[in-house]
């Protein structure tokens, strides 16, 4: 080996020791998070009672206060922190089918640099009423973790139960459907289950009013991209981040705001996700119908937003037996538009109980966009090219913080369309990709990480 190569080799080894994987691993081991003493829950009993008569007994973690909720299950394997902070889970007791939850702890919820005003997780705190897991991890390990699942749940007064057979609970919920429940802790866990009439039904509450912003606010005020209004039914933070990341100036409006009175100020309208039954805000759907009829700018709806678009278009919404919650839902595209190609299957993240009814004939000006490959439920609707409109709704979450990101470019399509319209362009033809002007081009070419 020549002297020249030997010197280079030594330099490489030295630099690897300073900054390579071994050095990083050593530093990580030395950080307090890796050497922390776990805060353990007091060993107190807990029970999950279902209105249908079954009870499951285990141990408590998190809050020691008992809570009611609608019991639902999620098949997601990762991102429990994102699911639990998703406002669409408001009022629900969330059963995780993944056997161990909590391994990577909980990160700080402070905004990421570049995204002031947007929490790191999906909202400002935990939204679900309780969590049910087979085995809670009492120790965590992740470079971003600042506390354990137990400590986090305690801080947000959300009780958890561990040591129950989540497979049995999930099989039951799949058969009989989403069921009202009570997560009982401590002395209450030893007492008989509540009477049928005592179960609290979150669908009787205006959950959207609780999840929405009380006042309008603006994000990325000095951005150069299109001006997009978000009707907030309980928006996930990563939806806002996905719009801001593409240069949009985003104005978030309360769920019952009269958008039609201010629509001239905007280049596009986004309808967010949210908790509860879409039919509970029929007035909003009728205002959106007026927007669709009188305004020709792009509109994009996700989950609850998609259901509201459907109601506005004249489709019906129904309650599914157990809904779809998880990060592995395959959907087939029936139309091409922007980044989406007809005939392709995309894997998506979902969290919903309601869906739009699939009908032989769609209302004039509308077509199905996606369909679920497992249960054939409607996964998206789109305005037809003849309608001259540029409107899409999807039941799934293209922006899902926990992935998959197969459909993330729908945000680029939407922001581009808004920008294009702003510059006086005409409507998009299904299947055509248009990039509107330099701002949108620049925004679209930025590296995108969800
Ligand atoms: N994630 C959502 O927006 C859910 C919409 C509605 N609450 C449902 O359960 O179907």
Automatic annotation (TrEMBL):
Top-level taxon: Eukaryota
Matches recorded under CDD domains: GATase1_CPSase
Catalytic activity: hydrogencarbonate + L-glutamine + 2 ATP + H2O = carbamoyl phosphate + L-glutamate + 2 ADP + phosphate + 2 H(+); L-glutamine + H2O = L-glutamate + NH4(+)
Carbamoyl-phosphate synthase small subunit N-terminal domain residues: 44-184
Biological processes per GO annotation: 'de novo' pyrimidine nucleobase biosynthetic process; glutamine metabolic process; L-arginine biosynthetic process
First-level EC class: ligase
Pathway where this protein functions: Amino-acid biosynthesis; L-arginine biosynthesis; carbamoyl phosphate from bicarbonate: step 1/1
Record InterPro entries: Anth_synth/Amidotransfase, CarbamoylP_synth_ssu, CarbamoylP_synth_ssu_N, CarbP_synth_ssu_N_sf, Class_I_gatase-like, CPSase_GATase1, GATASE
Gene Ontology molecular function: any one: ATP binding
Keywords, sorted A to Z: Amino-acid biosynthesis, Arginine biosynthesis, ATP-binding, Glutamine amidotransferase, Ligase, Nucleotide-binding
Pfam family name, one: GATase
EC number(s) stated in the UniProt entry for this protein: 6.3.5.5
UniProt entry tagged with the keyword Cell wall biogenesis/degradation: no
Protein family (similarity comment): Belongs to the CarA family.
Listed HAMAP family: CPSase_S_chain
Name of this protein: Carbamoyl phosphate synthase arginine-specific small chain
Source species: Kwoniella newhampshirensis
């Amino acid at each position: 080996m020549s002297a020249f190569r030997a010197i280079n080799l030594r330099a490489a080894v030295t630099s690897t020791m300073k900054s390579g994987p071994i050095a990083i691993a050593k530093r990580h081991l030395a950080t307090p998070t890796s050497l922390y003493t776990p805060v353990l829950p007091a060993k107190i009993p807990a029970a999950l009672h279902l209105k249908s008569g079954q009870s499951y007994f285990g141990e408590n973690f998190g809050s020691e206060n008992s809570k009611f909720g609608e019991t639902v299950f999620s098949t997601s394997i990762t991102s429990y922190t994102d699911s639990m902070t998703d406002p669409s889970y408001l009022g629900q007791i969330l059963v995780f089918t993944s056997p161990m939850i909590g391994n990577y702890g909980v990160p700080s919820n402070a905004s990421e640099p570049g995204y002031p005003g947007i929490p790191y997780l999906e909202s400002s705190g935990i939204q679900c009423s309780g969590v049910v897991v087979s085995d809670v991890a009492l120790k965590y390990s992740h470079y971003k973790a600042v506390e354990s699942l137990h400590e986090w749940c305690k801080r947000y007064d959300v009780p958890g139960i561990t040591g129950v057979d989540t497979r049995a609970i999930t099989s039951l919920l799949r058969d009989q459907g989403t069921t009202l429940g009570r997560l009982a802790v401590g002395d209450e866990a030893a007492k008989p289950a509540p009477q049928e009439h005592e179960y609290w039904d979150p669908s009787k509450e205006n959950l959207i009013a609780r999840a929405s912003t009380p006042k309008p606010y603006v994000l990325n005020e000095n951005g150069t991209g299109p001006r997009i209004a978000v009707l907030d039914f309980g928006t996930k933070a990563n939806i806002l981040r996905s719009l801001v990341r593409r240069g949009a100036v985003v104005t978030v409006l309360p769920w019952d705001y009269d958008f039609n009175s201010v629509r001239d100020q905007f280049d596009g309208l986004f309808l967010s996700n949210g908790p509860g039954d879409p039919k509970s805000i029929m007035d909003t759907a009728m205002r959106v119908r007026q927007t669709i009829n009188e305004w020709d700018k792009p509109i994009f709806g996700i989950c609850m937003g998609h259901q509201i678009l459907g109601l506005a278009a004249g489709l019906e919404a129904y309650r599914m037996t157990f809904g779809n919650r998880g990060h592995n839902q395959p959907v087939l595209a029936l139309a091409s538009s922007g980044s989406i190609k007809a005939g392709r299957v995309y894997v998506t993240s979902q969290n919903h109980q309601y869906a739009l009814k699939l009908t032989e004939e769609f209302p004039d000006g509308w077509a199905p966009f996606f369909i679920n490959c497992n249960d054939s439920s409607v996964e998206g609707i789109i305005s037809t090219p003849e309608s001259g409109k540029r409107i899409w709704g999807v039941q799934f979450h293209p922006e899902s913080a926990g992935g998959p990101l197969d459909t993330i470019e729908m945000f680029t399509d939407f922001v581009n369309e808004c920008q294009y319209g702003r510059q006086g362009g005409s409507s998009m033809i299904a299947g055509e990709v248009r990039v509107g002007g330099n701002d949108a081009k620049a925004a679209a070419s930025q590296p995108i990480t969800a």
